[in-house]
């Protein structure tokens, strides 16, 4: 089974490296007749696009998408949709040092150990640039689930969390941090700027909520909605943890505390809590689907770290390329994309089996 | 793609419900020539088996495995291995009340919403009994990776964590909690007994470590070792969170704090830290692979919870069947099983692509 | 991807050898709510069952199926359906000679070359007994496509073909050859009996037609209905050729001769010919889906054939076990089964993508 | 599972339509370290390229491939290889008539029935132009199996077969028909030219042989080498029949006649015949793997055929675009490509399971 594809019925495959001419995605299984344009895909790519503030990598990529197949007269035809994004602003010479030495915490050593060679420029295939392909693919996936609304936000940077009482969805798009708490956004501006100036990096937590998901999506036991979400999120660059609903907090609770009571309501049951994050037994319950995702600080920092080179000798590694001081920030649109892709797939899967 | 199968090259499919005559697994893709016997599989089933202490469900299941295919003269033949476990101690009448009402937090409502009907006896397909199939399948998977040692333990129950300084691997098998800290085991005995007597339930955290995994297993980008582990663990009954390495803690760190420096050593690089949990870029680094898994308190409790019945009317639900007061305890061997299954699959996958 | 599974959404996995205690199938992805009983599955197994006439193997197997999961109160639950068939009439000692020498034309040598060992008793995994699992799985698949009628028949044995003018569907079930031509059946009785008495074997052609398949099933380009049928049929033991519609005959025609003209009719177009066998561009057209399948004579014959043994030395091999003199005869229900399984899968796949 | 992907470990996905800007393939699972260049891929595309003689479509496509990813410093990196081919010589206006009416025998009606819309220009996704993607993908696949030699040829056009005694492999590349019999090539020149001038089309048979395949590739029972080949070949545009080895001829033989006796030889067994086409029980035997494939005459002919239009009304359809008078001719390099792709996949699959 392809290790560069994701999904079952609505399935996408990505390809491309950071410093080759282009990267892209092929989306297969999309239902026919949906309105799809380059402009629509571009909308989402623009949100993720680097270089829009000083808090993300300064690589300037227009990330203009080309829609090469699968659409006729503005509508999907049911055949594969090829999306291509050219790489424009490569500066490969930045990476000469990395060619020979392994950045600790980066995929350098692991790639070499696996393949015996690697495209070291900008991280090659392991670059976060690949997430542009996911965002483009998800723009298609979103068309499959018009009944669902998805939003992701950064809820914590370097341990400094938002105040839930300040949560304002409209605020998310108003600051460079996808932060729903205007006060936190102010604090983070200072925090991330210090990190950036120090040539350091910092971790973050992204949260995502999908509302409008009907009860019944997902499938026991190895196609569980939460398991697929876990794979989708953990597979994003720099992610080290995934929680559904209350996540690790439930490990400290009793069954009474963790219960999500139901009572009758007009349109299906009304839930009085959502510790479960909208999923039970791997199947959606009709409540909002909630995920939390932990991003590590990127390993590309200016401080020298003890490492080795390809010859196995001792080396000190500093990473001079252009990097995100807090890669979790641009993780928010990627988390949103993966949520859309998983839900679109499960909608079709459910329709296939259950009609 | 089958939603009841897991893995790529070494792939298993499970089937069966809690109160039907049997359940089982079919393991496909196992290399030929490996020594395999019912006794070997039984060893692992016995560790997971219920009813061995008062801290797990009192259902008495011998969980005797039958090895029905794929073995000839004591060795695997490369053909599918069918493992069957009979259900013996069903008491279906315990579930008469659940037939009509939905246990909040359980999969009851979600299954009905999806399929329009469900086998409610003991949770049917959503019962934790299915994990016996995983443990049996993993006994085969372990044969594929003799170079790897795996151990899982409970590190926290209801918020009461072990003291890392007390960690003693030998202790794990000596108490009914898979607890590596003898002092914590004493505290937990009291804690879980109280929960049990109260007809309540409580959450737990399980940790798992695999040593001996060489660098190079795993595959970017949608076959990442950590993503597959996340899916494997999140798909276990009652799991709500998965961390690789330091998990959510890294979201609070800087790049300097999170670095895993390397220095030359005889057999590949020596790492000076393992924040990454042995995986970088989705590929193993040669360090121990570490996972943390959060189990919720089972939703089957004796306290009445507000709910609805199949007709959509208000109902109070108490669950009278035999249940684990802390389902995370028996989660430890299941986490270990899923770790083995993922690693076995990735070993073969790596060998297939990279020789 | 599992090499012992077939299908995409409606997917089945088979396991088991000829001389182990049992064999079976796990059917995944079946829609919920369908009426399913052991008796229904048995109906189809009984048609395929060996030992019912002197023209098939004399191994007496009741082929009683056990339905172990996935059904509750007589209806499918949407969870995997485990079907188990015990082996009863094994005579393993018949195979002592085969243990050491390779039957030419049989899978013996290939299995040893691949796996380094094999269960030689009765062909082990390569035995035609495995097709019982397919027939059982197809009994489930048929429930998914009540709109479709499928019938298969033997159209040729040893080069002696039926007369199409004599075709009588009702005749198929009245003779031991699944022969729709009463006159041919009389001839074949003599022909196959001679082959049987001579300890020889003979080839046959099976044809299959599915009516009621609506236009639109199938999927370009690597999920084509005809490609999936080709894989399904070519994968049956002893099959060496597959044709869709007119098959190889079209290679001799011009475009005018091969056209399937259409004209308006009440329910969709009326086709004036069906050279295409009901499939164009990999998608069903609404016409009957027609397949022809060539079965070789089984390689198990009493005449000594030059061969080698496991040590690589010269050996003369005669096969003394109980075998079908014309394995194509019992191929008819298996071809029918594979047709049902492919169509059921594509119905769900189409529904998933196109609603 | 993606319906636009093929293969298990070495898996490719194709995308693109006849009259959109480009088409291409993404090849996943390729081993690292193999030398790969655009020039290498171009070699094979040039063999299949249209417009090289009057016997193929007059569409002039340079079919220049761009290698967009997965290669670094001239070697494969183990990451997905994206191959893109631009469409240059589209004349969409040729298809105005086809937009409204269905060409009998073509995929027009089936696509509309399935998707409710279609890109009718040049057949859209169902165009034989898609096979360029397969040929490009196979150029990568060939690198995986340097031990194997593959050649395909046209053995029959319109019922006029080559004389096996005249078989000369060197002749295949010397005439525009991939014909190994110089005499037949002369006859075909006249035959196909007449068909072309009449605006008609004609069927053909392509044969393919792979030598150097070691014993042991393939996998029972739903990953059989012959079943995968059957799917691969039947999925090529215009194919209606597939035979392995002697194919349908074996249905007329006895077991004695069909035996492939073996005798000891230095490097494994020597086979005295190859009725089986190099495959037994779904696994290669070490003999040449032989396949025969039947191509229908393309349905695009100038003679008016009775049909219907999208409104369901009667229509006479003549197809005025540029077409192959004998699409089977250019089928030869495509059959060769699919053979390479299937073998490459099974080599890796075998290595994965059996080491």
Taking the sheet with the most strands of chain A, its summary is: 5 strands, antiparallel
Mean pLDDT of chain A: 94
Strand content of chain A: 15-25%
Can you tell me the residue ranges of chain A where pLDDT is under 50 for at least 5 consecutive residues?
none
Name the structural class of chain A: alpha+beta
Shape of chain A: globular
* Quaternary state of the chains: homotetramer
User: Could you tell me the radius of gyration of chain A in angstroms?
Assistant: 21 Å
N- to C-terminal separation of chain A?
27 Å
Q: What's the count of strands of chain A?
A: 18
Give the SSE string of chain A: EEEHEEEEHHHEEHEHEHEEEEEEEH
State the share of residues found in helices of chain A, binned by percent. Answer: 25-40%
């Amino acid at each position: 089974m392809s290790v560069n594809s994701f999904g079952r019925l609505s399935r996408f495959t990505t390809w491309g490296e950071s410093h080759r001419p282009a990267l892209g995605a092929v989306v297969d299984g999309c239902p026919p007749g949906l309105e799809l344009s380059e402009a629509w895909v571009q909308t989402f790519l623009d949100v993720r696009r680097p270089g829009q503030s000083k808090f993300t990598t300064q690589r300037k990529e227009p990330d203009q998408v080309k829609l090469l197949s699968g659409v006729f007269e503005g509508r999907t035809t049911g055949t594969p949709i090829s999306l291509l994004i050219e790489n424009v602003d490569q500066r490969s010479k930045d990476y000469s040092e990395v060619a020979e030495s392994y950045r600790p915490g980066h995929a350098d050593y692991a790639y070499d150990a696996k393949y015996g060679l690697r495209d070291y420029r900008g991280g090659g295939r392991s670059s976060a640039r690949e997430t542009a392909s996911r965002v483009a693919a998800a723009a298609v996936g979103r068309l499959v689930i018009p009944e669902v609304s998805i939003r992701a936000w950064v809820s914590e940077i370097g341990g400094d969390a938002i105040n839930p009482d300040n949560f304002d969805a409209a605020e998310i798009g108003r600051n460079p941090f996808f932060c729903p708490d205007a006060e936190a956004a102010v604090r983070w501006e200072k925090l991330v700027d210090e990190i950036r100036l120090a040539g350091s990096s910092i971790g973050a937590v992204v949260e995502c909520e999908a509302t409008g998901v009907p009860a019944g999506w997902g499938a026991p036991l190895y196609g569980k909605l939460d398991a697929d979400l876990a794979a989708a999120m953990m597979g994003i660059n720099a992610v080290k943890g995934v929680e559904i609903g209350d996540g690790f907090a439930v490990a400290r609770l009793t069954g009474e505390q963790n219960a999500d009571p139901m009572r009758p309501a007009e349109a299906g049951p009304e839930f009085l809590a959502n510790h479960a994050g909208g999923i039970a037994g791997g199947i959606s319950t009709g409540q909002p689907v909630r995920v939390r995702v932990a991003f590590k600080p990127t390993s590309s920092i200016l401080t020298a770290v003890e490492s080795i080179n390809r010859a196995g000798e001792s080396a000190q590694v500093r990473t001079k390329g252009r990097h995100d001081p807090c890669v979790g920030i641009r993780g928010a649109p990627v988390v949103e994309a993966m949520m859309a892709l998983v839900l679109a797939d499960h909608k079709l899967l459910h329709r296939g089996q259950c009609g």
